[in-house]
Design brief:
By secondary structure, the protein is of the alpha+beta class. Helices cover about 25% and strands about 40% of the residues. The chain has one domain: Hotdog Thioesterase (Thiol Ester Dehydrase, Chain A). The protein has three helices and five strands, in the order βααββββα. It has a five-stranded antiparallel beta sheet with strand order 1-3-4-5-2. The radius of gyration is 16 Å and the shape is elongated. The mean pLDDT is about 90.
Length: about 140
Amino acid sequence: MAQPHRLAVRVYYEDTDASGVVYHANYLKFLERGRTEWLRTLGLDHAALLGAKEPLAFAVRRLTIAFERPARIDDLLTVETRLKAASGARLNLEQRILKQDEIMIEAEIEIVCMSANGRPRRLPSVLQTALMDRQF
């Protein structure tokens, strides 16, 4: 299997609850950052996609997440993002959040390519080409 994209993320005070443990919803933010930076490595970014002649964006359609271990304030985490499949208007991704080699979170995410009117649309050729050229 291809190597995943990796993004380092530090846990800040604002990410935690009163006990210094990462609040569960904030893991979604870390995963979103991982997907955004993965997309950037493909030569695409959200601002350019929204500003294109035919604007597009991505929406999460399905998310399955397993919380394995809690991350704590000041932990340095790694968000891994790997393409599982791409078809039609969908991208299926596997993501993990690790602290060194210890798995904190495992997630499977299905995102859908959307046009400006909010309707699903096929993945644009520029994205399809980037996915074929760069196997994560």
